[in-house]
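Researcher: Please generate the 3D structure of the following complex. Treat every line as part of one assembly.
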Amino acid sequence: MKKLPLLIAVALVTLVVGCKKSYLEEDTKALLYGTDVLTTQTGLEAALTGAYKGLGQQWSWGFLHPSANAAVLGGDDVTTHPGSNKADWREFDQFNVPATNQRSGAVYNGCYKAIQGANNVINNYSITVGTKATINIIAGEAYFIRAFSYYWITRFYGNIPLVTAGEYSDTLLTVKKSTPAEVYALIVSDLKQAEILLPNAKRDWGRPGKGAAKAFLSDVYLTMAGWPLKQLDKYDLAAAKAKEVIDNKALYGFDLLPTFAAVFENDPAVNGTAESVFQINGFAAGSGTANATYGNTTMPGEEGGWDDMFAEINFFNAFPEGPRKTATFRTEFGRPGTAKITWQNSLTKHPYYQKWYIKGEILTSSISLPSVMMRYPHVLTIYAEAKARGTAGPDQAAYDALNLVRLRGRAAGTKALTLADGLSATQFADQVVQERAWEFACERTRWFDLVRLERVEEANANKHPDDLKPIGPITKSDYWFPLPYSDVSLNPNLK
Amino acid sequence: MKRKLLIYYLCFFCFAVTTMPVFSQPGEKQLNPVSGIVTDLNGQPLEAVSVKLKGTSVGTVTDAAGKYTLNTTQRSGVLVFTSVGHDLKEVPLTASGAVDIQLTENQQILKDVVVVGYGTQRKTDVTGAVSTISTKEFDEQPVARISEVLQGRAAGVQVTQAGGAPGGDAKIRIRGANSVLGNNDPLYVVDGYVGADFNTLNPNDIESIQVLKDAASTSIYGSRGANGVVIITTKKGTRNFRVNYESQFSQSQVIKKLDVMNAADFAEIVNARAKGTGTTPPFSAAQIDNFRKNGGTNWQDLIYRNGIGQQHQLTLSGGSEKTTFLISGNFLDQKGIIKNTDFKRYILRSNLTSQVNKNLSIRLNIAGTRLKNHNTGLYGNGNTPVVQAISWAPTTPAYGPDGLPTFVDVTGSVSRNPLDLLNDRLADQVQSTFNTIGGVNYKLPIEGLSIDLQYAVNYLNGLNSTLQGQRVSNNNPSATRSTFEQLTLQNTNALNYNRTFKGVHNISAVAVLETQQFTDNNFSATANSIRFPSQLGYNNIGPNGASVVGADFQKWSLFSLLGRANYSYKDKYLLTAAVRRDGSSKFEGGNRYSVFPSVAVGWRLSEEQFIQDLNIFSNLKLRGSWGKTGSQAIGPYATISRYNTSPVVAFNNAGVVSGIYQGNPGNPNLKWETTTQNDIGLEMGFFGGRLRVEADVFTKSTTDLLLNVALPSYAGGGSQTRNVGKIENKGIELSIGANIIQNDRVTWVSNFNISNVENKVVSLGDLPRLGTGTGVGGGMSTTNEFMLIPGEPLGSYWGLKYLGTFKPKDAAEAALQGRFPGDPHYQDVNGDNAITTDDFQIMGRAFPKTTGGWNNTVTYKALTVNVFFQGVFGVDKLNYTRAAALSGSGDARQPTLNEIKDYYRVGNETSDIPAFSRTYQPYTQSSRFLEDGSYIRLKNVSLAYNIPLSKSANKVSLKVFGSATNLWTITKYKGIDPEASNVGANTDTAIGIDYGAYPNAKTFTLGVNLAF
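Model: Done. Output below.
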């Protein structure tokens, strides 16, 4: 026992001298960090997958929930409940959008998260070691994701921060807004890169192929030709690019389905259709990957739905009869096996969109169905409209493209439009725009057509008495939403 | 409220003044002085002993040789000798005038020892602000947890029972909140183990609790001391074998229910709203008549219940001269007041001490705890039975024709049936803690020097299991299992020195080397679209549509050197200096180490002649301290930018692919957050200690504030941890204790404490302001609910100021905003005729200004009555539960509360409840739903009776007791419980929101205690 103090002293000294240095070193064995991660093909592929995440995290990022749908309520095809818990939806329908609106924020936040991931891949894929062909596809998808994301953001918000850095740095905190012209320059350049790098056949249902890059590029050109850039020379580019897709549709795996109803079968057992140019897949059993743009959101309260969005009455009334109208709208409500009531007698007194009912009328908000971000008929109408508004005017191919969409949707016996009908180029283009409204009703398309053609005021001028009216007059300042408050409050240069 | 407090103060003061003895003395002159020597029982001279001639102002103190000479020649009368640490002695004067006496050590004062960090001090020597809670203060109450012991019993300690669920979260704050990012929970030290979890302790095992508040006391804990330290010492064995058995049974009810409409009234309101917004009224007159006759569903009645609870406690204690043991077991089973929620706790402890020989003692404390929370963790957002019970329509039947709960509410909520939320999901948490502390103390051959080695092992194993069943998941059932294993190893090596020189210079010092290392290994599996949710639950999650697994590892370590020295001169002048140097693995390079010094001085004025001459104070001590403490309020690896490895993406409908994306950017420049604290305290005792008053004034200034600074979404979102800004807490604390009645039959001991803390954000570096949110208000909040702004307190609510409804005379103003009379009128701060985020402003405060407690124990013969009030003042609550049930927000589509009947309509234009209109924009994040959360609560009333037993059984005691907790509350708050909040204990920037929080219960307990 006498030696105890000595032993203790020795123990103490050993502790102090021996352990001190390594004792405080951080043990990072469970962390993935540093620049080495992207030098492997596996790392690069994982980073690409992470970039896609921004496009689809249910309820918080991207397009697997009806945020983008809410943000385009300014169109004349969709409205929302005038009471209930739909305040943030009404803000869009009534042109009264505050910077704190939470619906569009999910698109904004998600697209920028996707952009950050895409930047990381684009800036690093040159150092990645692996199969060159695969690495190029990965890079091509990243370029596509970045272009796709910026396209959505600039159409919603106009002047926006343009970030191409994949890593955070403090300089980002004071970045200034870029103009749509600057943003579109990057979008075009990215889609051109994607066009080169992507394979003809997409790697999987939820990924873009070469055709998707071309199709989106043509849509981008069409938009650039309208408000706000009004670069009229882009109509010809849009038509040419759309034509490339149409001419090579088999190569890219695109086609028009024989019936409109087949497009919206919404069978969770089916991965997608040939009409899908680009889609973001939903998977009900994944974490945050289920799709909530189907089911509850567009169903009436009588059927256990949420009454989030339904058809504007004037739009419904003007909608041309035919198989497309039948497949687009739900006009009688009632769960399978129960008595039906007509929309006129329903609580909200509006027709709803049958398009987003799940096969078997499953009542849920989480389903394995894709959010289709562009359908092949969209490309047909781009060609038709762009050709008409371009230098040459509509050709037979433009009429053919429109007729494909028009005849499939309308009642049997509807006559095809022909050059002989004597429509002016502008009249023809407007026919195309109107056909798009019917074809893509409640598909997040109409609003952008109204904006680029500066027809928002006109489209909202005559509302049915049962529809929500704008609060105050609509001006050009309503064409874009205020940047989310969460970001503006962090960077005064965004004011 | 302030008035009430004032009355409390006055009562005590009047009491003090009216009973103050009045002294007046005629002087007498004599020639031969009285003198003598004072020694202790061993014959050692005692210095600084006060010697007085009773009833006169004549007095002196002894010198270093114990000698004294009184300036009197009187030969009649009584001399009074008083000395710290010794019993008072009165000796009649003799003719010789020479009085030599011996003083005996006062056992009580010696026992009045305060455990401070890494040592003990006599209470009289303490220079820091330390509150002591003895077991006496709570042993008459059915406390189940340490948080209940701390609540209202120590000035400067705020305890909020934020989660009312059994085993729910308690938020404890000592002297405000310093840190925005960090956890502001105090540091718990149990028997020397630093960083203990108080939930694993059995209150019956506690010997004493000391709350260290000022920097002089806490700087010894350095980087972990900034939030105050709670030192808990567990009981040791007694030499005589004792058995103590206690049983308690309790019954709990919800404090109150919200006032919801009956089905018929509700249907009428829904129809009126449909008319107002231009939709079809859903209810026919016949249906309404039917509801009027037959009623509807009262959802609240379906979710609440009487919660039954029981607690059993057995303690065995015993030993020999040298070795003692204490073995105790505790079992607690509490059923919650919401159905299908409960909490179970099992604790077994063994404390062993042995004095091996004159110099060597050893000790070993072992405690095992198992905590089981069943479904109590499901109350963090609006999707709870509490919210859905007031969101589902009273007109919707609880059950469908199939006998199952109604699946969809077509009128009320878009969320799930409250019954399904109760029964079709599970959240089971099981935690097993094994804590061992072993120590050796050896007295070295140098007088007063000893060495103490202690090792502690804390092993925590947790298993969390959740299930979202078929119905509650809207047909996509899922389950998760996760486990973690956390191991904390601590080694403390201390050198103690304690010696008194020449009878007047007392020095005690301690030097310590301490290391602590924490390792966490965890694993989780989430199975989605599970195939057999009702048969297998979460028990077998193999059959599923897809699964996600995760595994993680974390480690941090702390290396510390510390020392403290106390010096006292004649027990009158006290000085303490302490310093700690901490090194943390969480920081890099030069920022890794930091030094935390402190200095404190004390002056025991009651030892001074001129104070003694006043004959007012039995104790008077003035003390002051300065010091620094720190916070490493971040997890490990915050300096490193790393990838988030959790994302999964679907590229088809058959499965997912896992990916990575950038997580929060690391910050290699991170350093310690430092809190500098000043404290001045005054301790006063009157009437021989029957009235005790202690007051402290303090300022705490926290610099290099660690903040999670939100990053813009365009920069990848998330946040980065940075050292930004400064926060200040200023406060006063007052505690008064009085033995109001003290006689053979009746005693009444009353302890009152109150503290006031003003919290202010001084700066945020370059940031003009910084929002913090809860994520709690999906569909309720449009942005962060809280804003940090320099000059404003932490936890300031951010929102629109609600001015009521637009009145007919405001029609023109309303029209500018596109609104009409009857629509909500928010303050248009910038006058741009639009209600936007630019109109958001600070609405109120979530962190209470004032907290207090008043504890009374009255004994009459064998009867003991305890009455304990607790109060919180100067705090607002954002009542989202009410907002949802009144405005049709979040998941709720229709208002359900009775107060909606007063809505604005023609003929009722004075109402500030908005009209049913199409232009109604319900900002729930507004002062409309911000309510005064102040309250006074009768926390406990209890009655205990010691049953008199025959004399032959004098070692046997039998006690029966009954009590009621949360019996009575005075508050203006309209929610169920002003104390409950959604957010757990780990944040102070986002407190005060009530959106389906689990309310506290009103509990009645009966128990019996047998000891022999």
